[in-house]
Structure formats: structure tokens, C-alpha cells
Design a protein that fits this description.
alpha/beta; Jelly Rolls; disordered N terminus; 584 residues; hydrolase activity, hydrolyzing O-glycosyl compounds; seven-stranded antiparallel sheet; 23 strands
Length: 584
């Protein structure tokens, strides 16, 4: 094996970077200058014990170190399961418990996934923090909205058709007025199929209808107006291609303008063949005025608008339809609240029946606060993507958490067994540590209101802490100060405090995030230091009796404690030392 000179790049670069986050005395004793850098790093990381080594359960009776994942990933990944069982006390699972996730395709309650999670926890002796029982996302919003929608009872519908002409009661040779030149006269159907028809466009002198159509008198039945009419329908046949194309079919009401339609061919007509009922000129195209809609008697001119039209028409009628105004039964706010409370109670009771024997920690409300400091709770009135979410307080009122807490505690008392453990209910929120935001203050104000009845008890607060490590030193200092200030304010509540979804991104000095694939080793060291800082501050500022735990969101990957092959990374050391109360 080649011996490396103490001045080589390996000795200069790697230890200096590592010293930024590691205990130098421990590191120097573990580092072998004769080994390649990656081997030495691996040996050093493997010298750490398990994450749970420094967790004193006696001094921290409520503390749970957990990893965040979903059931599918956990059940399918043996390596992740091994990490969970050896390095963590529990798991935080945010899938499988939400309202939409517990309903099947028929909108019936289905707790299959939740049951699987409970069984996994029982089989593996794993503590589970579950959530969330009420939030704006992962709700079966289409079903819920349908339940509280006003009831629309459609009005009665009646329809019919008015015969304009079948020409059977008219004498052969009877003529009809035309809008221009040419004639329209009653004649026998040359094909012998249709009795009497109206023949348009030829006379004894052989003249044709040039852009001229016949005019018909129309009287509608009592109670029916032109506004009720749907279409002017006729049997139509051209004796040749004359009239099949041209400028198209036309209709004219009284002395109004021409209403234009496609040519006869577009209605399925062909030369020399009857198209029975195939020409239907819809009145919607007419764009009737309000005065026209009231008409009960009028004239209609209709036919093919061609320079040399020769055609036969028969069996002319108008279709109509009337729909009486329906009834709308408006649901009052009180009725909507009652409906939703019933749904929520059934969902929570079913969940406790499945899970109360194993799961004692629940997020009862997740992300309830608006991101807008000028607002309090999230609402359809202040959210950008309101259509695909469901905002319970819009219907249950701002004290909706009182109802949820009461339901959960009652159902837990019913279904928990002796030895199940003490129920602990949390409100979970993100962005509480954001510099300049008042979200934490607003959350504490709401919690004061929720507990003002003297009955509602919220045991703890979860702060997700999706943190940014800034490559701008001044900004990073502000970030760290904001974390410390947030933990100080949370400690002052006297409630259980958990960091519920701790994860980090690296942000350039200009505020642009560094993609995970481009995070380098030096930046991983910086993340390790930031992890260590947050954990040390948590144990420093949160009293032991209030420490409900820390959940790590990213445990595998470039920004995690293990790489994709489940080898420890530099961040592991920062977390390990942080749990031990040791700075990097």
C-alpha cells in the first residue's frame, strides 16, 4: 500500500473540510494517513454508534426520534426498515390516514392502508406518529362538496312539434310566396313516395329559383312562443346538383336578416334522393331578440340559397321544448356544518377503531394557518388552489379544532385497550421559523381560542422546519437566529414540542436553490453543521418534559444521513453529535 506524504492533497483537503463539522480529536485518532480518503471517511463514519445511543428515555420520557416515510416505501425497502429499527425509535407516516386516503371508489370508508400500518407497527415494535386527521389537502373534496351542495330539483319539461305543412290538403298548383324570383308550387312527388310536395325552382318556362326561398306562415300552439322553438325541420330533395351546394341553406323570420347555415350537402342531402327530416335549421343560430322570442305567429322563409335551385320539400315542422323553472333547496350554514360534522365523526371513529390500540400520537390539524400574515386560518377565500382542496373551518367555524379534539378523545376512549398509552394530540405547521413571518404568533393566538372553552386540550405543537442553508454567511446567521427564536417561543407555551419534518436544502447567496445532484462534499459538511446546530438548540431550549421528539425527513440521498446504497454520509456525524449534545 502506498504511504501518503503528510503534505499531500489528501491530507490537506479532506481533514480541513472534515474539521469544519467533526470533533477533531476523535477524527485525528481515527484517520489513517496510509488509507485512501474515501476509506478513511468510511472508517470515521462507522466509528459513530447508533443514533439512539445518546437518547436518555428516562430524562426525556416523551422524546421520539423518528424518520418520515410512507408505508409503501417502508414495507418494500428492507434496508430502510433496518435503519428504522436500529437507529430510530419510531416513524412518522403522513399517508394512509387522511380523509381521501380512507375512502374507496364508492366513497365508502376504507382503512386498509391504515390497518397495514398498524400491523407493521405491532409486528416490528415501532412507534407511529400519525397524521393528519384534518387538513385542507388529501380530502375527498368532490364528495364533501357534493354533500353540502344545494339541492336542485329540475322543473317539468314538455316538448312537441308543430306541423307547418305536409301539403296534402292543398290543391295541385297552389303557389307559395318566394323571397325573390322563381316559383314554389304544390305538385305530386315525382317519385310517388311522398304524396304532395312543394316543388321549388321550375315553371312551364323552365325558370329556376335564383337565391330565392319559399315563405311559410306559422302559428304556434297556445302557450308556445318562438323562444321555445328548437329547429325548423323538412324533408328535402334536389333533382340534380342544382341547389345542393351554392351559398347554403337560409332561414328568415318575418322581415329579419338571413340566417345562414351549411349547404344542403352538409345536411346529408344528395342529388335525386329524399333526405327525410335531415335538414334541421336550429333556431339557436338565429340569435333571436327578446321581442322575437315572444312571437306566436310569424313567417319563416327557408330553403337552399342557390343561383339555380331546383328542389322538392315536404313534411315541414317545428320542434319545441319548454322547461319549467325548477326549485333550488338552499342548505343553510348550520345544515352544512351538521352534515360535515357527521362525516368527520364517522371517519375519526373508524380510524380510532382501527388504530387506537397501537397509535397514541396524532396530528389533529395540519397546516391550518394561512401563509398570508393578514389572514388567520386557511380558507377558500385566501388560497390560490382552493378548487382542489377542502377548508373545514369555512363550514365548521374557526373553532373547528374543538370539534376534532372532542371526537378523537371520545373515540380513543371507546376503542383503546388497557395499556394502549396516553393519547397525545398535536397541531402541525410549517414555516413557523421563517424570518419576518407572524405565522407562529397567529398559530398561538388560534390555539388560545381553541382551548378557551376549558375543555379542549391540545397536547403539543409540531414545527416542520423545512430549512435552508444559505451560502451567504450573513443570511445563514439570520436563519440560525430565527430557528433559536422559534424554539424559544414554542418552549414558552409549556406544550410538547416536536420538530416534525426536519429537512434542509442548500441555497446560493442569490437565493437560488442548489439542486441535490450538485450539492458537493463541502456543502454536505455545512449541512452537517446546521443539523447539529438545530438539534443542539432543540435540547438546549426545549425543557426535557416538553421534548416530544424530532422527525428527520431526508434520511437517504445526497442531503441525507445515508447515501442511496445506505452507507453513512458526513451528515450522520452532525446528527449523531447533536443528539449527544455535542457541537461539531
Amino acid at each position: 500500500m502506498r504511504n501518503y506524504n503528510i503534505k499531500s492533497l489528501l491530507i490537506v483537503a479532506f481533514p480541513l473540510l472534515w474539521a469544519a463539522c467533526a470533533d477533531l480529536e476523535d477524527y485525528s485518532s481515527a484517520y489513517d494517513v496510509e488509507k485512501p480518503g474515501d476509506v478513511s471517511k468510511t472508517d470515521y463514519l462507522n466509528s459513530f454508534g447508533l443514533l439512539t445511543d445518546h437518547i436518555d428515555v428516562t430524562a426525556n420520557p416523551n422524546f421520539v426520534l423518528a424518520l418520515a416515510t410512507d408505508y409503501a416505501t417502508l414495507s418494500d425497502n428492507a434496508n430502510l426498515g433496518s435503519i428504522l429499527s436500529s437507529n430510530f425509535q419510531g416513524v412518522s407516516i403522513n399517508t394512509g390516514f387522511a380523509h381521501a386516503e380512507c375512502m374507496d371508489e364508492n366513497n365508502a370508508l376504507d382503512y386498509t392502508v391504515a390497518t397495514n400500518i398498524v400491523n407493521y407497527a405491532m409486528d416490528n415494535g415501532t412507534l407511529v406518529h400519525a397524521g393528519s386527521l384534518c387538513q385542507h389537502t388529501k380530502q375527498n373534496y368532490q364528495y364533501l362538496n357534493a354533500l353540502i351542495a344545494d339541492v336542485i330539483i329540475p322543473g317539468n319539461e314538455r316538448s312537441g312539434k308543430v306541423l307547418v305543412h305536409d301539403f296534402e290538403d292543398l290543391e295541385i298548383g297552389t303557389s307559395f310566396k318566394m323571397t325573390g324570383g322563381g316559383e314554389a308550387i304544390v305538385a305530386n312527388d315525382p317519385d310517388g313516395q311522398s304524396g304532395k310536395v312543394l316543388h321549388i325552382g321550375t315553371t312551364s318556362t323552365g325558370s329556376k329559383a335564383a337565391y330565392s326561398i319559399p315563405v311559410f306562415n306559422v302559428t304556434l300552439p297556445e302557450g308556445v312562443t318562438l323562444g321555445d322553438c328548437i329547429a325548423f325541420v323538412m324533408d328535402f330533395k334536389t333533382t340534380s346538383t342544382n341547389g345542393l351546394f351554392g351559398n347554403g341553406m337560409r332561414m328568415k323570420i318575418n322581415d329579419g336578416p338571413d340566417i345562414k347555415y351549411g349547404n344542403a350537402s352538409s345536411f346529408g342531402c344528395s342529388s335525386g334522393k329524399w333526405n327525410r327530416g335531415g335538414v334541421a335549421l336550429d333556431f339557436a343560430t338565429a340569435n333571436l331578440s327578446e321581442e322575437q322570442k315572444k312571437l306566436t305567429t310569424f313567417t319563416i322563409a327557408a330553403g337552399t340559397h342557390s343561383g339555380e335551385a331546383i328542389a322538392d320539400v315536404d313534411n315541414i315542422y317545428i320542434t319545441w321544448k319548454q322547461v319549467e323553472e325548477g326549485e333550488t333547496i338552499i342548505k343553510t350554514p348550520a345544515e352544512k356544518k351538521e352534515i360535515l360534522l357527521k362525516q368527520l365523526k364517522a371517519y375519526i371513529a373508524g380510524m380510532m377503531e382501527v388504530a387506537a390500540t397501537k397509535i397514541t400520537r396524532w396530528d389533529i390539524a395540519s397546516c391550518p394557518m394561512s401563509d398570508i400574515d393578514g389572514c388567520m386560518l386557511r380558507s377558500a377565500s385566501n388560497e390560490a388552489n382552493a378548487a382542489s382542496s377542502f377548508y373545514w373551518p369555512d363550514y365548521l367555524g374557526e373553532n373547528y379544532v374543538q370539534d376534532i379534539v372532542a371526537m378523537v378523545r371520545a373515540a380513543y376512549a371507546e376503542y383503546a385497550e388497557e395499556g394502549s398509552g396516553e393519547l397525545q394530540l398535536f397541531v402541525d405547521e410549517y414555516g413557523l421559523e421563517q424570518p419576518g413571518s407572524r405565522k407562529l404568533e397567529r398559530l398561538l393566538q388560534m390555539m388560545t381560542k381553541w382551548e378557551a372553552d376549558g375543555i379542549t386540550k391540545i397536547d403539543g405543537i409540531g414545527t416542520q422546519m423545512h430549512l435552508e442553508y444559505s451560502l451567504d454567511a450573513n443570511q445563514q446567521k439570520r436563519n440560525e437566529e430565527s430557528v433559536a427564536a422559534t424554539l424559544t417561543k414554542l418552549a414558552a407555551t409549556g406544550k410538547l414540542i416536536r420538530i416534525s419534518d426536519l429537512n434542509f436544502t442548500v441555497v446560493q447567496a442569490n437565493g437560488i436553490e442548489v439542486s441535490e445532484s450538485k450539492v458537493n462534499f463541502e456543502q454536505q459538511i455545512a449541512l452537517s453543521r446546521y443539523y447539529n446546530y438545530v438539534l443542539n438548540k432543540y435540547f438546549e431550549l426545549i425543557p426535557a418534559a416538553q421534548r416530544a421528539g424530532i422527525t428527520l425527513h431526508t434520511v437517504v440521498g445526497t442531503l441525507g444521513l445515508w447515501d442511496k446504497d445506505f452507507n453513512r454520509q458526513v451528515i450522520y456525524g452532525g446528527v449523531y453529535n447533536g443528539l449527544a449534545g455535542k457541537p461539531n
